[in-house]
Amino acid sequence: MTTTIRRWVETDTGHRVPNHSSKCAHLHGHRYRFEAEISGELVGDLEAPDVGMVLDFGDVSRILTEEIHDVVDHAFLVQDTDVEGRAACEAMGPSHRTVVLPFPPTAEHLAAWAYARVAKALEATYGDRLHLDALHVRETPKSWATYRP
Q1: Less crowded by CB within 10 Å, the N or C end of the chain?
Q2: Which is nearest to 148 in space by CA: 47, 39, 1, 33?
């Protein structure tokens, strides 16, 4: 029997979507929520500290913190080809946290980016015992994107 768990982490992150026809082309920020949906068999070893769990929520939190939160929280996401956005970040000085991405920093792209990072971390630690079913990104309370391979 497979069971699915979910855990999320929130970040305060800035971005802009270059070439957007509306206000998202401007520098702005969001309170993002990155939510991982993980499935697997329950740990059955009665001596294991995580018996009866798919994965300890604290372990999920650690992975989300290391792979997403600590990378993008209080940072500005900018596409590598966004000349104006990169110039604005450079004007803020060397202490400004900028994450340069090879794609426009839309919720859809961020969901795929975060999925790849979390899936790699899960596989490195747990092998094929667990499966990352989806990575959801909430950009606003009414706007979500989900990546499923």
Answers
A1: N
A2: 39
Per the structure, how many domains does the chain have? 1
- How many angstroms separate the CA atoms of 39 and 131, rounded? 5
Distances (CA, A) of 119 to 59, 111, 144: 13, 12, 20
Provide the CATH number for the domain around residue 34: 3.30.479.10
Question: For the whole model, what pTM was predicted?
Answer: 0.94
Tens digit of pLDDT for each residue in 47-99? 888 899 999 999 999 999 999 999 999 999 999 999 999 999 999 998 999 99
Which of these, 105, 102, 103, lies nearest to 76 by C-alpha position?
A: 105
C-alpha pair distances (Å), 142 with each of 26, 139, 145? 20, 8, 10
Domain range for 132:
2-147
DSSP output for 29-64: EEEEEEEEEEEEEPP--TTSTTTT-SS-HHHHHHHH
Q: Is 9 exposed, middle or buried (0-12, 13-18, 19+ CB in 10 A)?
A: buried
Whether residue 49 contacts residue 145, with contact meaning beta carbons closer than 8 Å, is answered with no
